[in-house]
Amino acid sequence: MQHLVHSDFGDSDEGFDFLGWRIQRRTWRGRDGKKAVHTYPSKKALLSVTDKARTLARRRNLLYNYVHDYAVS
């Protein structure tokens, strides 16, 4: 089993995705070019959450329309 002991970003600031998070080194605003590591959700993780929310909203709308149509009839 291999373990990640040390990750050297080098000069590349591309970053990498790890467990649904984007880890990237960026310039720290207002700190004269110093760099800091930033983490934020990866694009894949955001798409997953968006798709789940969209599915739930569609189900809710379908149920509402069904109940509303039945009550009006």
Features:
single chain; 73 residues; alpha+beta; 2 domains; 3-stranded antiparallel sheet
Q: What letter string, H or E per element, gives the SSE order?
A: EEEH
Mean pLDDT: 81
Low-confidence stretches: none
The major beta sheet can be summarized as:
3 strands, antiparallel
- Residues in helix, %: 40-55%
Tell me the strand percentage band.
15-25%
Count of folded domains = 2
Class per helix and strand makeup: alpha+beta
Report the principal-axis shape: rod-shaped
Give the tally of β-strands: 3
Spatial order of the strands forming the largest sheet: 1-2-3
Radius of gyration: 22 Å
Distance between the termini: 65 Å
Total count of helical runs of at least 4 residues = 1
What would you say this structure looks like, in words?
41% of the residues lie in helices and 23% in strands. The protein folds into 2 domains: 1-41, no CATH class; 43-73. 0% of the residues are buried. It is α+β, with helices and mostly antiparallel strands.
Give the secondary structure arrangement, pairings included:
Elements: E1 16-18, E2 21-27, E3 35-41, H1 43-72
Q: Brief description of this entry?
A:
The chain is an alpha+beta fold and about 70 residues long. The protein has one helix spanning about 45-70; strands at about 15-20, 20-25, 35-40. It folds into 2 domains: about 1-40, no CATH class; about 45-73.
